[in-house]
Amino acid sequence: MKTVNIKIDGVALTVPEGTTVLEAARMANVSIPTLCFLKDINQIGACRMCVVEIKGARALQAACVYPVSEGLEVITNSQKVRDARKVTLELILSNHDRQCLTCVRSENCELQKLSKQLNVKDIRFKALTDKEMQPIDNSSASIVRNNNKCVLCRRCVAVCQKVQTVSVIETIERGFRTRIGCAFDKPLAETSCVNCGQCIAVCPVGALTENTHIPQVWNAIADPDKYVVFQTAPAVRASIGEAFGLAIGERCTGKMVSAIRRLGVDKVFDTDTGADLTIMEEGTELLNRIKNGGKLPLITSCSPGWIKFCEHNYPDFLDNLSSCKSPHQMFGAVLKTYYAQKMGIDPAKMYVVSVMPCTAKKFEAQREEMKNSSGYVDVDAVLTTRELARMIEEAGIDFKALPDTDFDDPMGNATGAGVIFGATGGVMEAALRTVADVLTGESAPMEKIDYHAVRGIEGIKEAEVEVAGIKVRLAVASGLGNARKLLDSIRAGKAQYDFIEIMACPGGCVNGGGQIIQPSSVRSWTDLRTERAKILYDEDKALPLRKSHDNPMIKELYDEFYGNPGSEKAHHDLHTHYIARGKY
Amino acid sequence: MGVDCGNCSDEKSRKLLAVIEAEKDNPGSLIRILHEAQEIYGYLPIEVQKFVADNTGIPLAEIYGVVTFYAQFSLKPKGQNKINVCLGTACYVKGAEGILDRLKKELNMDVGDCTEDGKFSLDACRCVGACGLAPVIMINDDCYGRLVPDQVPGILAKY
Ligand code: SF4
Ligand code: SF4
Ligand code: SF4
Ligand code: FES
Fold first, then answer.
1. Assigned domain for B15 exists
2. How would DSSP label each residue in A107-165?
3. Could you give the ipTM of this predicted complex?
4. Cystine design at A503: which of A110, A187, A447, A478 (Cβ 3.0–4.6 Å)?
């Protein structure tokens, strides 16, 4: 690798050629403020927060896009630089709806932090008048857009276009009227937005948030007539600690369960049990399709963002989708039928709350197809990991000081197979563990059940495995841009598979759009996906049961209620169907 | 693959398709394609933008972003008679806003719109260079100067 010698604030260092000044400064432990910058996703030099002096250049330069060269001398902290940054920031703040006190992002806001860091004490430009306020778009079941807090960094646009290739949001008009919006200023709900929430995850401010269900959940908890059941997806435990100062990648399943219990709910269950159930159903579907010459490849259906993407853009693949509902919907259906019956609870009084790393599940829970099994909606409310953290904070619970407790019996004991659902490749691995045993009719030893080929964060993974003498061609894609590539190659006849796992979010649910938001200063330099996924694989390793079909609860459920996987009753309660939607 | 918007025939969409085919792979082609599309249809309604999106693979939101970025593109049809009200400094000082308000009232529409019968469209523009005559409006190529609002109905009646 070719290197160059440069100086940053008088300190000499050698860095690889092509490094940006911003990255080089990091190596020299000099921090340069940024706002629009998001490594690899948005490096457009738009906000000019990161300006520095370059010796020999007349104008200040944006560090995030300026490449180093031999002999370059950079000054990051002169009066001129500080003044320029401050004026830029004041201009951004001047048409910002500065209501930090009531803003969801307060204390986790990159703009607020910059304002403190740059010591802004007075904003010389006029503030937004009521007339200049833009309407808030809360049409979507999942996403709320408030342009009055938007700093036009375009990070959301970049992630929606480049990473997800959904491309429904754009910068519209110019000058003072510039805004983020959809084609023809349509409300988000009327577009092909898939509700993945990746735009929220990258927004530095409070301009993008989830459509919150916190008020109705508090109401249900306060209602003595309601039997409130929480279920948490595997990936939630991999991120929630970050909201309370735990390190990224620190396990806190037990504390999370304790915290939820202290909110005053009746039961806390693990969605992983639903994931185990999904594996039984989906594994059976795969076996049937392979044996009976059914439609292949079978594509997983756990990710509602992916489902909506498929409905809009790849309607020709709808028959390839597994008909399985996603794990939390299956679990909700089980709770309101089997469990309610068993416990003598009126399902009309049961209120099921899914805590998810995902904003798309808010949309999914409201789909008409999810309302038929018990005669009630499977899931009443969906909270993101962030919303759960907010409720814990509101309840005055000291998360870090909580003891570890276990999920409630009997629905709370899942297997390691259910846990790894939260990482890309996890559903596939879990399915293979079960399918292999069913096909061979014996139980594979523990050391044989780790399918390393499908682990890791690469966007597209391929493998061919032999399961009981049958060759199965696998592919795993995460991030919708990767899903698009994979499907296009199948459409073009260039690739053939039997079983495909697709997750809408890059890296799978651990990096879902509902997870705790990390600022660009962390996100750009930390591999959140790997750190968080580690928690899940560690938990899987530590669990005594690691195959879905070994879960005693699952056995009981089939014995007492559904008969066999894929039975008519199972189909009625646990499966769904899809709709072709327009491209726009 | 026609553009279904009532007043545009298949002839037009064939023409646009030819433009797209010719331009498609050139860098920066979108602006030229949109420019031609506007020449063909007179404006760029949602159906035309979708047609461009479908045939170029460029996302609709991006196309809309470009169309709204450049003043040369119009989302609404132009009338048979295009009214332009000068809002340059001189005209503004001499009461152009009063003229504009009266036009809006007489025609019952807003700036950028077109009357339902397609007869008039109304736009505001920067200085037309006739400051001596301020306030000025242009209707097609006719220029009317030193106006007061009460003259507006009489002028409109000529068209
Ligand atoms: S987005 Fe940030 S700066 Fe703006 S109101 Fe919210 S917390 Fe305050
Ligand atoms: S939720 Fe996903 S698809 Fe919708 S606008 Fe945001 S990034 Fe794009
Ligand atoms: S909505 Fe958020 S991410 Fe998108 S441009 Fe505005 S501030 Fe940036
Ligand atoms: S221009 Fe560098 S961070 Fe925005």
1. yes
2. TS-HHHHHHHHTT-----SPPPPGGGPPPPB--SSSEEE-GGG-----HHHHIIIIIS-
3. 0.87
4. A478
